[in-house]
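Design job #97: recover the sequence.
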């Protein structure tokens, strides 16, 4: 029967190519290019949140928050997150790990109504190097996410039990507004060394960096 694959972004596209078609019950995405790619493979494609869920599903950088009613309709729904939970809840976890000096990594967790708060199935810590930029750290975090996908997608499809451990207390959480406030105006109050560090944290291939 397969499992639902909820996808967005470049990693979502990778997961779509990586998954065997027979293992995908349906693809849920609001990205027209990903929807077209799924349709070319002959996979059922759904947009929005009106789909009837299969028993299980995996979210891979899906870009919308699912309503509680839809989450509850799944027997099991997991999320692949580019942060080492409970650190890096919310938006841009790779940036915040590098900027704040908090742990970085990838986490597979059960999806619950509260953002990035579900029990952890598995996690891979990614060491932060002294010369890391946002882009170099992001690339290694994404490699860790791919490893988690390869290990657990077949198990999600198979329908057997998966580990689940409550997240420890503490950690960090950030919103998109916090990120934009720092990027667009907050940097003006930083000393030279922190400003240089911020520019390194924002150094992603093809990304504009600070709004100067």
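Job complete. Output follows.
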């Amino acid at each position: 029967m397969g499992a639902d694959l909820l996808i967005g972004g470049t990693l979502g596209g990778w997961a779509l190519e990586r998954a065997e078609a027979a293992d995908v019950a349906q693809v849920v995405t609001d990205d027209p290019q990903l929807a077209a790619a799924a349709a070319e493979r002959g996979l059922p494609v759904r947009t929005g949140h009106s789909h009837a869920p299969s028993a299980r599903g995996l979210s891979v950088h899906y870009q919308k928050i699912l309503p509680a009613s839809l989450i509850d309709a799944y027997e099991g729904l997991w999320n692949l997150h580019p942060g080492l939970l409970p650190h890096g809840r919310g938006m841009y976890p790779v940036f915040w790990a590098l900027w704040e000096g908090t742990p970085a990594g990838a986490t597979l967790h059960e999806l619950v109504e509260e953002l990035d708060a579900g029990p952890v199935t598995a996690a891979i810590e990614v060491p932060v190097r002294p010369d890391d930029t946002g882009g170099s750290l992001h690339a290694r975090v994404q490699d860790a996410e791919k490893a988690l996908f390869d290990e657990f997608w077949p198990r999600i499809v198979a329908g057997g039990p998966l580990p689940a451990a409550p997240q420890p207390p503490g950690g960090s959480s950030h919103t998109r507004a916090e990120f934009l406030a720092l990027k667009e105006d907050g940097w003006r109050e930083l000393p030279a060394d922190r400003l240089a560090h911020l520019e390194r944290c924002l150094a992603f291939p093809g990304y504009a960096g600070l709004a100067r």
